[in-house]
Amino acid sequence: ETGELDDELSTRIIAQTFPSNLTGYPAISVPVGWSDGLPVSAQVIAPPWQEMACLHVAAALERDDLFERRRPLRYYGLD
Q1: How far apart are the first and last CA of the chain?
Q2: How far apart (Å, rounded) are the C-alpha atoms in residues 59 and 64?
Q3: What is the per-residue pLDDT for 67?
Q4: Which of 35, 38, 50, 70 has the most CB atoms around its CB within 10 Å?
């Protein structure tokens, strides 16, 4: 609740990024919305050696204004 390490949550998060990291596929996460006061992102994965395609899709998602930029309700960072 206060930001300490949660092994179960960390394992679930890593499971989403591990396949692209292991295979070397270019990937990027882009904020696309909110759920229960917390930001949600979409992960874009492109074929090998297609980094620019991945960046183009991410830029298009950002331009689409799907994400209202604001501080999450549960914010533990420093100002």
Answers
A1: 19
A2: 9
A3: 64
A4: 50
